Automatic annotation (TrEMBL):
EC number: 1.3.1.-
Active site: 107 (proton donor)
Reactions catalysed: a 5,6-dihydrouridine in tRNA + NADP(+) = a uridine in tRNA + NADPH + H(+); a 5,6-dihydrouridine in tRNA + NAD(+) = a uridine in tRNA + NADH + H(+)
Positions contributing to FMN binding: 77, 146, 176, 236-237
Cofactor: FMN
Keywords (A to Z) from UniProt: Flavoprotein, FMN, NADP, Nucleotide-binding, Oxidoreductase, RNA-binding, tRNA processing, tRNA-binding
Role, per record: Catalyzes the synthesis of 5,6-dihydrouridine (D), a modified base found in the D-loop of most tRNAs, via the reduction of the C5-C6 double bond in target uridines.
Molecular function GO labels: flavin adenine dinucleotide binding; tRNA binding; tRNA dihydrouridine synthase activity
Protein name per its UniProtKB record: tRNA-dihydrouridine synthase
Top-level enzyme category: oxidoreductase
Length: 367
């Protein structure tokens, strides 16, 4: 059995393997989570929620807490500008029955940081402690924190942050190997993550240590584990259009789906999308980004993406893909004849998050 295929305990919560899906804003909805779970993700999360929006009983935010009946284990992540507000949100999320709750102290998006959330918390070490302690007092469920190496490269404080969250009794912490000021063109700093993992090893409590950043395939996951000493990896951008990454990491070898395997998963994702959002224009619009990510790596797919980027109903999307399937061999291996190497600056969510300055729980953040 490979390292990643081993079960792990987060507090009293049993997780079947050590490959997790990150809570991706605007992405980690029920249809996408179901696909990732089916392809092997050991732990998935509802997308990052705003504590402010929860305090305002924001309707959209509570809709984002939806859980499918097949999701036996599900985590949730929250961020907020004030420790007491985060603690209140944790109480609410505990009542919603989530199996584990994560505090986000790493989101770099300007609108989130400008509201005093995400990476902004790293600028105030005492607030880190206060936020985690008050949240710990609000739930008996497994609690974790996710953060970056620091706010800027000149102010890397990951070791201090790690000491603080462990001393505040988290059951798990996840470190992303960049500072808030660094873009994805800066490679993930494995030494920085290792320094945090070393703090965790030196303390007596049993805390699960998770590495995050530039995990795009089995080899990068293996490198992350071996060079940092992490107990598990969390996949973010590497899962966009490629939920097979979970199967690949668990298998311990390079894996690319055939067109037939790819087609089956994409059509299943469309069905889940329709089941969750209904046969609506909104459902099709929300699916577009996934369809664009999925269709990379196959021959003559640019024209297909141009069509999919304009679909207004999912029946139309199915017909476009079925027509494309008639022109593509079933045994064609994805990325054959293409460069499979993904560099650190690969960021398919750029337009969504950074160019559009998308915030988490926008309604609540602006309230």
């Amino acid at each position: 059995m490979s390292f990643f295929n081993q079960a792990i305990m987060i507090g009293d919560l049993h997780i079947k393997n050590r490959v997790f899906l990150a809570p991706l804003a605007g992405v980690s909805d029920i249809p996408f989570r179901r696909i990732c779970q089916e392809l092997g993700a050991g732990l998935t999360y509802v997308e990052m929620l705003s504590a402010t929006a929860i305090s305002y009983n924001n309707k959209r935010t509570f809709e984002m807490m939806a859980r499918h009946k097949t999701e036996s284990v599900l985590g949730v992540q929250v961020t907020g500008p004030i420790a007491s507000q985060v603690a209140h949100a944790v109480t609410v999320l505990d009542g919603q029955g989530f199996n584990t709750i994560d505090i986000n102290m790493g989101c770099p998006v300007r609108k989130v940081v400008g509201a005093g959330c995400g990476s902004a918390i790293l600028k105030d070490p005492e607030r880190i402690t206060e936020t985690v302690l008050s949240s710990r007092a609000s739930t008996k469920r497994p609690l974790s924190a996710k953060y970056r190496l620091g706010y800027t490269r000149e102010n890397v404080n990951v070791e201090n942050t790690t000491e603080r969250v462990i001393n505040a009794n988290v059951d798990m912490f996840t470190v992303h190997g960049r500072t808030r000021s660094e873009s994805y063109s800066t490679p993930c700093d494995l030494n920085g993550i290792k320094s945090a993992m070393s703090v965790g090893q030196n303390l007596s409590q049993k805390v699960v240590k998770v590495g995050n950043g530039d995990v795009f395939c089995y080899s990068s996951a293996d490198k992350m584990q071996k060079e940092t000493g992490c107990d598990a990896v969390m996949v973010s951008r590497g899962a966009l259009g490629n939920p097979w990454i979970f199967s690949e990491i668990l298998a311990g070898t390079s894996l690319s789906p055939t067109f037939e395997e790819w087609f089956d998963v994409v059509m299943r994702h469309i069905s889940y999308q329709e089941e969750h959002y209904g046969k609506t224009k909104l459902s099709a619009i929300l699916a577009r980004k996934h369809l664009l990510w999925y269709t990379k790596g196959f021959p003559s797919s640019k024209g297909v993406r141009d069509l999919l980027n304009r679909v207004e109903d999912l029946t139309q999307a199915r017909e476009i893909l079925k027509d494309y399937a008639l022109r593509t061999p079933k045994d064609f291996i994805r990325f054959t004849g293409f460069s499979q190497e993904i560099t650190s600056d690969y960021d398919p969510k750029y337009e969504m998050d950074r160019n559009l300055d998308r915030g988490v729980g926008d309604e609540g953040m602006d309230a």
